[in-house]
Amino acid sequence: MSDDLRKGAIFLLTGELMLSVMAALIKHLSGDVSHEMLVFARNVFGLLFLLPIVYHQGWRNLKTQRFSQHLVRSVVGVCAMYGYFYVITHLPLAEAALVKLSSPFFLPLIALIWLGEKISHKTLWAIIIGFIGVVFVLRPGSDTFQPVALVGILAAALASLAKVTIRNMAETEPSYRIVFYFGFLATLVSAIPLLWRWETPSLQVLPWLAAIGLAGTIGQLLMTKAYQIANPGKVGPYTYSAVIYAALLGWVFWNEVIVITTLIGSALIIGAGILNMKSR
């Protein structure tokens, strides 16, 4: 298991790095490209990069009896993506990453309401501590509070809802089928706003849009592989490397500085996340 954990940690650390690079690319392009185009590019290029994998698995294996749940998951996931991309462009990268990391604290609550799964005492404490950490990051009532962060909280809740939908389909749907239907349906859903917001990307911008899709897809595949070969409770804490990557990228490219309340919030959120994983 030690070898598996080591490999899992490498996959997860690399996956989070790729997702942080994707976030930085989104922030870089946000001044020149609309959110609608950014979300669509993430999905369409991600789908193109997934097609060889699906071809290898076989097209016949894509037949499903859970199409409606795939559709719900895709619509909810695209809404979460819109919210997260919006937050990336308006908050420092480290704070955007921390707001996104509040998603695991919504998961037990949604699973309780939808699937009837019980919440342990450790998980309940983790949720409370995690949301206290979010309060430190958001700083409500202070001069530095940015209401846009609430969009990120909503996006994190929607992302959790999408994950619970995946869990509800797990008995009959293999991972590659879930990934394909999300990529396919999310591309269709995110194309709808382009009917009135279409922008023809320039030749200079197109490679950057493709890079967003590639980085996001590689990141997701690496993280999926990490959880397949290593114990989720042991390898999971490495996902918090996203905060370090985001802080470094934000500092290097945008001179973003982390304030003391963000550091306190980071410690609480990361600590609560680890406690939540240990309670499983």
UniProtKB/TrEMBL annotation:
Sequence ranges assigned to domain EamA in this UniProt record: 7-138, 149-274
Q: What keywords appear on the UniProt entry?
A: Membrane, Transmembrane, Transmembrane helix
> Where, per UniProt, does this protein localize?
Membrane
The scientific name of the source species is Ketobacter alkanivorans
Chief location:
membrane
The name of this protein is: EamA family transporter
Its membrane topology is listed as: Multi-pass membrane protein
Q: Which domain of life is it from?
A: Bacteria
Transmembrane spans: 39-59, 71-91, 97-116, 123-142, 148-166, 178-196, 202-223, 235-254, 260-277
- Keyword Signal on this protein? no
Lineage in the entry? Bacteria, Pseudomonadati, Pseudomonadota, Gammaproteobacteria, Pseudomonadales
Q: Name one GO cellular component term.
A: membrane
